[in-house]
Queue: 2 jobs
Job 1
Amino acid sequence: MQNLPSGRTTSADLVAAYPHAAILLDSDGTVMAFNASALLLFPLLHINQPLSFAIRNPELLDSVESAGRTAHFLEIVERFPVERAFKVSVMQAGATGILVVFDDQTADRRLERMRVDFVANASHELRTPLASLLGFIETMRGPARNDFVAQAKFLTIMEQQGKRMARLVDDLLSLSRIEMNASIRPDDKVDLIGVVRQIIDALKPIARERDVTIHVDPHVIDATVLGDRDELLRVFENLIENAIKYGASGKRIDITIRLQGERDILVVVRDYGPGVPAEYLPRLTERFYRVSVVASRESGGTGLGLAIVKHIVARHRGRLDIQSTPGEGCQFSITLARSE
Ligand code: ADP
């Protein structure tokens, strides 16, 4: 907090107490006080210097000049050093002062953009199989009306596309359900060894189909954690299914379950497939992000599996780590709090 010349301490205290960045000016636009948040945003701010030395936005400077008793609001975007958007209110304060308050909208805008992108991505993902379904219906009514061999082939593809849409809708619903409950930490007792074995049993047919063997190595007798059993089943289903789908060329998957420190259980799912180049790793858990869209579609993926894993693990206050050496495979590690 920068102190004011004596006699103005009250207004300066007020500025310091503001939860947002706030600057107090004299009637001619000279800086009289500002708080720490304002200095973070505008490092060139100095007491007794014109505001225009620190902020160049002409719209804001104009509105300071014409400040009146009633507050007026404007939206400004500062582009340096990084782009940030603010809702700014400018109003008279006391007899001659002008108070400028900056409400940072950057995070809200980013969230809004993510929401819009998400809706656009989800619609696009649904539209692709839908267009293919409609196309086949038209063909079966028209040129292939009497071609029963072609019709049988089309029906198989239509079934696949329909199933893909159903999977997508299921994944979208799961995501929104998990997000809705994000603040409630699940606290049932769940035996992770049982969860992992159940998933391996369920995935055995597709592992066999791709000639992959799965080895489980529990280094602990009791791997009970606090959690939601259904959600943890989804986590290991997604990770082990991905290891089978994308890591099949490695022929082997190793799953280890061990104690991590005193309080946690660590489960590592390791495959020996092609792995993922380092630059893609941070994006794997983004919704709809896929290293290869074709490979993901061919294996029935929706691009939402790892986003679901991330959200479930976050809801459990656990940790997800992804490591990979291209050519040597991937390693997904999940850490969850042990149940005492
Ligand atoms: P998908 O439905 O495409 O499988 P995921 O969210 O589960 O969606 O995974 C996102 C992407 O991460 C996949 O499309 C794939 O490119 C990559 N990926 C996930 N697991 C592995 C793995 N074990 N080996 C190599 N790539 C993987």
Job 2
Amino acid sequence: MFEFFSTKGFKGYVKQAQKILDANWTGRYTKPSPGLYPHQWNWDSGFMAIGYAHYNEERAMQEIRSLFEHQWENGMVPQIVFNPEALGNYFPEPDFWQIPGGRLTSGITMPPLHAIACLHIYQHAKNRRQAHDFLKDMYPKLMASHRYLYLHRDPAKTGLVYIRHPWESGLDNSPSWDRPLKNIQVDKTGLPAYERKDLAHGVPAEQRPSDKDYDRYVYLVDLFRGNHYDETEIFRQCPFLVQDVLFNSILCRANRDLVEIGKIVGQDVREVEEWLAQTSQAIRERMWSSERKQFDPIDLITGEQLPTATAASFMPLFAVAASQEQAQLLYERLNSVSFCALHQGDCFTIPNYDMAQNEFDPKNYWRGPVWININWMLSQGLKSYGYREKSDAMKKDMIQLPVRFGFHEYFDSITGKGYGSDSFGWTSSLFIDLVYEYYDEDKQALNWLGRGKSRKLKDVKILNEVSGVIPVPAEDLAPKLMSSIGELKDIFYSMDRGRVDYEAMKRSEEYRSYLEPVAYLKVFDLKSLMTREEKLAFWINLYNTIVVQGIVELGLNSSVREISNFFTHIAYNIGGYTFTPDDIEHGVLRSNARPPYRMSPVFKGRDPRRVYMVEPMDNRIHFALVCGSRSCAPIRFYEAGAIDNQLETATRNFINSSEVVILPEKNKILLSEIFNWYKKDFGHRRDIFQFLRPYLDQDEKAEYLAEHMDTIEVEYLFYDWNLNH
Ligand code: 2M8
């Protein structure tokens, strides 16, 4: 591996997304969209701040601050803060809410995303001091907002808080609310007069909630204002009280992040830890339906679960509240034709509602389309539980949907067409987050200019050097090595943040026992590898092992590029010879082909290691070598007996991941930098396309490529060198 910065990647699209946010920015907060939503929305601001955190931390903080300036005395953060200068284009506005004291807010709340957003701002801040002050300022406000929920929305102290209006769920007309809303008998004559404004902005009625829904939304608001927003009275009278899976999962995850915030600013976090423990247990135990094998909301009016098949059911993954077994069952459902399976090819993952249900509607708001915010949360959740391929496929869809179809509010899960408002805030901000997180343009640029923090190893560091006599190695050395690596990863992988705790790993007993078989390599007889398959499996596994060990031994925590000569200055002594990762990759596995952008091959002249070259080279190795960064393959153990199939799978997964994106609307294909670096192996554009074709999921994009091989424009993606934690 080596460093090279060469591509434009998503630059233009990031600019476009930033332009949308600039246009929606009011100076204090960002409107979710130019026309349809002219005020400040609660969780939208959280999502906006997450995108801003990457390039405008002032604005990210301002976004959250301005929302919390309108926090109620009881701690509630309102769903909407109205802009007095923009009144008249939305319903319902302050005249309808009639909040005591003439407040310019609505009288309900929304999923409490803000602790998550605040921690994210801090973690990405360039000005750490300022971000620390921000956290200090926000901590008591965030505490008050969670305390409000536990005090007023969980009177029975179950650990689960209730919502009292569908708008509080954020998923307004979700099929989950059909049943409880149907149970509300609305007498039209008793309903206050109102006029919907949401249909006056060019969004067709079929993409919005129905009039019947609105009657019920209004009925509930009327009840709240009639009771002057007294929570005890509302609890007594409200016909809609639901413990929602998404709301409680976000609260649970927000508690998790609030604990971290509290620790950063030196506060006693016991109260939040209790909330966290109580809510995650309640989600796991009380919301789980063992019959349907999913998490369901609980209707507090009937005391029953509300069995619906929405994407909200998967949200305990984001909360990291689901048990491993529950996560496995959720995954099976999430990765099925109901929610668009991996390699299915004729849909976008994941729609908000089960595509196999009769009521599934690919166009209608929260009743079927793909939403970027839900996918963003679920993709993180899946990654936490180790479902990296699915998580990555979702990432690819979240990036390609806005690029191909525009920065819309939601997208058709079958055709990808954008619906609802265009120039939508969180679609733009989360797109920016995804591009920065995964394609990492900025860090690339910094490193290329030599301004990144990198150091050099002076001498080659042999990682398996031990003193004393080494006994004869066990025969199954390679499997032994890999299984101990797997064990290490299992133990030190932190579920809630998706990180490997390399520090703890280094100090552990398990790590010491992993080092034992590595020492044997010194006396390993490389000639005992007879077949091509044995050689391929051995060298790929070894490459992957040395990279992981290098990361641990050198104490790297963000990128292998912290050591500028990482791939040439760590090594194993194997059978008396020194092999660096570059020797293994370019010398052995690429049959001593010249490394890209270098003058000569790694094995020069009569280098005795030449006899171990695997010839002819197999291009698929590029998708199996774990180079310790996020853009390369996930770690796997390769077996001689199965290596052909394993390499096929690795290649297919890579080619259908976010490293290869075909954009028919733009007549463009975005390709992993790997294809650019290894032109020598893959050839030029037509050869690359021919290589891709048999692996690509057979969908309309693959067809497009086949038909436009001569004209399609190629752009290479930024390579993400962040550690593949
Ligand atoms: C939608 O909801 C508002 C009411 O809150 C509406 O339809 O008027 C939802 O998608 C919600 O989740 C979102 O926060 C809001 C603004 O984007 O629009």
